């Protein structure tokens, strides 16, 4: 049996996302042909307001879902895996809906071997490239333990332990990956509105943010309150990519993903 309160909360969130305006009880009833009376709906609205899921600016105005309600809604709706995505649809819909999309090619480079050249320098052999750094016995022994690790993990670990020569050269390779941003204007509007510092802006514009997160939903760590960041691994053409979608919680992400997904 469907829980009335949960059903009405999902209904008003859906209506709010579609119309971007406060929703009244009579309006909600007519929009979805709900069999409950307006008085019954108002009673549940009051309970949902007391629980922190609905807000009302004025006594006579309709209700809007709170950030907490939207977070829970999207946490349930966006719990899926992506396969192939349509680049043209992403370019068009990011502007139509008002979200920013960051897509970065994922190269499965791993550290295969380390060659000691006469205790003078070391050659680090990765799957598709190699780098040369100065030899030290401690660094050589440390890197030997990293054989088999993926590129991104080596970047993060080398920075943490102060192996800056390794970090700089491997990071440079990561920055050369294919990277695209769709609807940059929307991201700059967000950055200006919340006074992002230069480091935060560059982490998005250079794709570094994609290197530091896994698949999933992010609400408060990399985006401000009232926004959502959605990270998925997917295929764009014949390339393995990681995609990050950033926008306000009130945007219609269900519609966005239904249109960019390719069967």
Distance between the termini: 33 Å
Number of helices: 12
State the secondary-structure class.
alpha+beta
Note the beta-strand portion. 15-25%
Question: How do the SSEs run, as a string of H and E?
Answer: HHHEEHEHEEEEHHHEHHHEEEHE
| CATH architectural grouping of the largest domain | 2-Layer Sandwich
What top-tier CATH class of the largest domain fits best? Alpha Beta
What does this structure look like?
By secondary structure, this protein is an alpha+beta fold. The strands form 4 sheets. Strands 8-4-11-10-9 form a 5-stranded antiparallel beta sheet. A 3-stranded antiparallel beta sheet has the order 5-6-7, covered by helices on one side. The relative contact order is 0.15. β9 and β10 form a beta hairpin. The protein has 3 domains: 62 residues, Winged helix-like DNA-binding domain superfamily/Winged helix DNA-binding domain (Arc Repressor Mutant, subunit A), CATH 1.10.10; 118 residues, 2-Layer Sandwich (Beta-Lactamase); 65 residues, no CATH class. The mean pLDDT is 92.
Entry keywords:
single chain, 263 residues, alpha+beta, Arc Repressor Mutant, subunit A, Beta-Lactamase, 3 domains, three-stranded antiparallel β-sheet, elongated
List the helices and strands and how they pair.
Layout (H helix, E strand, L loop, with lengths): L3 H16 L5 H8 L5 H13 L3 E2 L8 E2 L1 H11 L6 E2 L1 H11 L2 E6 L5 E7 L3 E6 L3 E5 L2 H8 L6 H11 L2 H12 L3 E4 L1 H10 L4 H8 L2 H4 L4 E3 L8 E10 L2 E10 L4 H8 E2 L1
Antiparallel strand pairs: 1-2, 3-12, 4-8, 4-11, 5-6, 6-7, 9-10, 10-11
Helix pairs in contact: 1-3, 7-8
